[in-house]
Amino acid sequence: MCARTIDEIFYIFAQNQRNATQTEQIKVPVRVRIKDIALKAGVSTGTVDRVIHNRGNVATKVKEHVERVMTEMGYKRNLIASTLAYNKTLRIAALIFDQDDPYWFQINQGLEKAQEATLHYGVNLDTFFCDQGNPVMFQKLATEIVESHPDAVLVAPLFLKEGLHFLQLCAKKGIPVAIINTQMPKAKALCYIGQDSYQSGFIAARLLNFGMKKKATVLLLNLDPGPTNAQHLLDKERGFREYFKDDGKSITVLSENFEQYRDQKALKSWFIKILGKYKDLSGVFVTNSRAYMLLDCIDKRYFQDIVMVGFDLVGPNIEYLKSNRINFLINQNPVLQGYLGVINLVNHLILRQEVAQIQYLPLDIVVRENCDYYTRANVSYPATIF
Fold it and tell me: What is the pTM of this model?
């Protein structure tokens, strides 16, 4: 076979380039217009417009037919342009708790990140802060929110009775609700985002069990103003007790609540009495983010033979984890809870997307050796969602 000349090589190269360009041009999607959809579907442009923007007044069969044609033609709605064109804003009311608490401060950080990511959709986030020990205040704020007619609600229903009442009011008004932190299975809500409280209690028991003798006492401690009315704490205790039923050891589960946890002198006196009464106390599980409050007032010599499990990567807990006074922290990612709560409401109301009703977040087990991995700012949240 004879060698090709330079001219022949350049000619073949040019032909290949032209063929490739033609192939690429064929693959470029054509912009589908409303009138194109109307023509193919055999309906008016007004009907197509009503289907696209979900305005109603379209028979079910016609709507399904138009949507099928839209799918076949590859139509993609320009959601940002649509939102701006109709000059709509979406007001989300969020009911959470004191910013002074480092856990709820992180929840609010997640809300703020979501607000920033959805500004271009005209989302307006109105956040209400409640005292964690005040169910009457919660009820008052809940009523205020419902009477202000928000487009959607995000809530952490810590108080069982008042939270359920709030969710029932929202259901009556047709207000979609995203629940975070505290799951309420009987409530009607768009979605729940957060921990599986029962499972978290079960995991805490398993972690404590690693350091248990054949016979010992473990303490499940609620540092909370009202645990009998807090569903997530009740679920944690249920999971905790369930684990020790079948662990094969003679473990006594002691469940206590101390409401005056901010009074260090009172907390210290109470806990030392517990140590005196239960000489075989070998493990403590603090059911929320306040494990550090117990350690703040108790000298480390009292914890030399006690395994400590706490919740959440708040600053003071991290310090005690690194100094080996807390053995395990269960991280439920409060920032992500707040962020996803808002994003799910936006996905439902503006983007018309299906939203999963139950969205359990992973329960990360954090120890001193892997703590820096979780505390480094190596996870970024989208500055904008589309």
Answer: 0.75
